[in-house]
């Protein structure tokens, strides 16, 4: 029998930290979270100020380059991104290979990984120009690919990007424009969606960003790394949570069933989706902004009295007062409200995580870039604590 303690004695000391609850895997200058206080900063700027005054593309610039752009840099960046928003025409054939009822995230994992097959002039990770162009391409093409997933699943023709529109307005156009009419973007809804993108742009070493870094640490090309991040984001404990919130609200169905549902949560039969966070032990600052955005969107659309919103508010009220949640410091996270907003914007539930992936792409590429540009970067290689069988000899099948 292997003595675990002897096995690991003499090696350099290492931590056993399942779930990485207290292990930093890297240094980063991009995003800071103060979980106890419920604060979030991108490159030192509070998320509240960026959500109020900035726009998504400007926030992308900030995350990538570390500073807010001046007017010339801002325009140059916007044009630089916009010129990459078309996808290779052969990618449309890639889409046609999927079943129409495929989950859009399964399509996204496939097509984003496949970008490496189409853009071979941006795969050399040791060439800074290749790295930059790959980053611009991914930020620019994600809305196009996301809208294509939606249109394909509905059997609708793809809409080409319109560069006269903003990044977010263009996405809405590609999603919703009918071939026979000029789509007019509602500025309140456009601003709300842009804000959702800002709030989801980065969140330091969450599971998907760590996945991108781990994949990238082997020297894999950036498109493959982002595809890995998308795969990780898909899970219901991470980016799939806003989808799970809407499903949960549908299952509860009515305010009268909230107490019964909460009893099941406390008995640990299931979790209250959209609540709790590994780092925030206070209100998620993005949730506060999202709640306000939710009010604005529902007012604009005349949906303030929607039963789903009322149900969500009833759940929130009970949870914030209940000792089970208070003792465990479980507060609503950004996903509790984002699903309601997205659904009001006409985004189908299955597309929620795709929109999260779209917005988070800039965070992923910023972290990937930061890691690749670090001269001390090493391949990520976590250790394990072996608890399996000790040494034993092989027995032929008739002796087992
Ligand atoms: N509902 C009910 N109980 C919960 C919830 C919840 N949403 N979250 C945590 N708990 C309880 C656990 O049962 C546990 O209780 P115990 O101490 O009696 O065993 C305690 O709170 C701690 O839970 P952990 O699972 O250890 O917390 P962890 O930090 O690992 O999990 C997570 C964080 C995954 C986000 C969790 O809170 C969860 O599953 N939430 C629901 C899914 C969700 O909303 N995810 C979105 C995260 S935000 C994002 O990705 C943008």
UniProtKB/TrEMBL annotation:
GO biological process: tricarboxylic acid cycle
Pathway: Carbohydrate metabolism; tricarboxylic acid cycle; isocitrate from oxaloacetate: step 1/2
SUPFAM superfamilies: Citrate synthase
One term of GO molecular function: citrate synthase activity
Catalytic activity: oxaloacetate + acetyl-CoA + H2O = citrate + CoA + H(+)
PROSITE patterns, alphabetized: CITRATE_SYNTHASE
PANTHER family reported for this sequence: CITRATE SYNTHASE
Protein name: Citrate synthase
